[in-house]
Structures are given as C-alpha cells and as structure tokens.
Amino acid sequence: MLVEVQMYTRVFLAAIAVLTLAGCAGATGPGATGTVDIRGEWTLTAGSDADGALELSDFPLTMVFTDGTARIRTGCYAYDSPMTTDIDVQTASYVSPPQASCMALTPDEDRVTTSLDHVTDVARDGDSLVLSGDELELSFALVDAVASADLNGSWTLDSIRQSDTLQSFEAAPTIVLQDGKLTARVGCDNVSGTLEPVSGNNVVEDLSIEPSGDVCTLQIDEAAEALTTLLAEKFLVHREGDSLELVSSTADSTLVFSPSV
C-alpha cells in the first residue's frame, strides 16, 4: 500500500488531507511502494523549512495517528481529519484554548501548521518519525505509552478542562485501575472493562456500564456523564507525577484525576 501524507492546514478554518497510514515501518515518497506504520502519539522535536530552522516552545506540538483519525495539537489549537484510502479533504475544527495557561503558537510553530501541505515523504526509524518535502523536514519522537503498572490505584476525577474553562468537583467519580482492569461506580452504575495503554488513541475493551441494582437516588451529574462518555470513546492516557489525564480524542475535553485519599 502506498502511503503518502498531504495535509492542508490553516488557523481557524483548516483543511487537512490525509491518506491511510498503517502497516510496517519504513519510508515512502512519490512513486514509492510499501507502508509505514505511524500510529501513535508523536511530539515535534525539530524542524526546518525554506525560512530555516524552527524555534519550538516548551508547549509541545503533537500529532496523533490512528486507523481512522488524525489529530494535530498545536499550542492552543487542535485539528481533526478522517483518514481514508483516498484523499479526503475536510474543514477541520478550531478549538479554543483548553486551559488558562495554554501557550499560543510561536511564529515558527505557526509556520508548521501552514507548511504541512508540502509533506511528500514519510520515514520511520523505531521511535523516530520524519515528515519531509521540498525544503521541509519535521522530526518527531514517539510518546511512550504509559505502563499499565503506573496506572494501578484508585483515581478521583478532580477537574475537566474544556475549551477555555476549567471545572472542578468536590464529589466526583472514582475509577480503580489494577493491572489493566478498570472498575468504577459512576452514579448508580457499575462500570468495568480492560485498559491496556498504548501511544495514541486508547479504548476500554469489553466496556460494561450496568445498573448496580442497589436502591439509588443519585442523579447523573456533569462529572459522571463526562467520565462515562469518555470511557465509551477514544482517549489519550497521560501520567505526570500524581496527575492522571484522560484526553478525549473526539472532543475538546481533558479529565484530570488525582490519587484517591
């Protein structure tokens, strides 16, 4: 399968064209054959274009590729596009800053978002990825998946970052993770499933959300609804110190957890 990447991005209204990206590690280019597996989450580590080397900020620019979706996170913006076997140009969504501390793009990073339409070559060497084209080279490092053992414990939902708001909760759902097994009591429901973290989009396998059967008068609140919605979809798993973040792959929301006391 020939693998090429053609992305057309612009701030606010971005058009992105992407071909299916899956298979085995290697390299492709115009007229080449073969496949390159670039599924996962990647952080931009260096780059250059016709204007010279890029100066990157401390706020990472990341790309997430899966079987059916490409998401580009650039500072305070996120772009989404489906990936198909044919070029499929879509108008991507503009996402406002997800948190008050969100840094704006540097001028060089903004150049990345407007130069991706020049990408013609894809090459992967282990955990390194290079997208290149005429006077363009972008180097990425694979974001390692969180080890399942590092998720073990009980985690309470502290807050939800969505668009430009940060909402906190005094009484919120708690999830328990133990060697890949997920359990939770959300409202009046028992939740269970299996989570084996990967780089990129994660899913809860064998997800079950069933009424507990107990006498329960709790109302489903925003925190509980956000948690069950996210667990039923795709999300990124990030662990930073005592903070666990589940980042929605389909919406502009991040659920932030801390260890249960």
Could you characterize what this model shows?
The chain has 261 residues and is mostly beta strands. It has helices at residues 107-115, 222-231, and strands at residues 14-16, 27-28, 40-49, 52-53, 61-65, 69-74, 77-82, 90-92, 119-125, 128-133, 136-142, 153-162, 165-168, 174-178, 181-186, 189-194, 205-211, 235-240, 243-248, 253-259. A hairpin with a 3-residue loop joins strand 5 (61-65) and strand 6 (69-74). 7% of the residues lie in helices and 44% in strands.
Q: Summed up, what is this model?
A:
With 261 residues, this protein is mainly beta. 7% of the residues lie in helices and 44% in strands. The chain has helices at 107-115, 222-231, and strands at residues 14-16, 27-28, 40-49, 52-53, 61-65, 69-74, 77-82, 90-92, 119-125, 128-133, 136-142, 153-162, 165-168, 174-178, 181-186, 189-194, 205-211, 235-240, 243-248, 253-259.
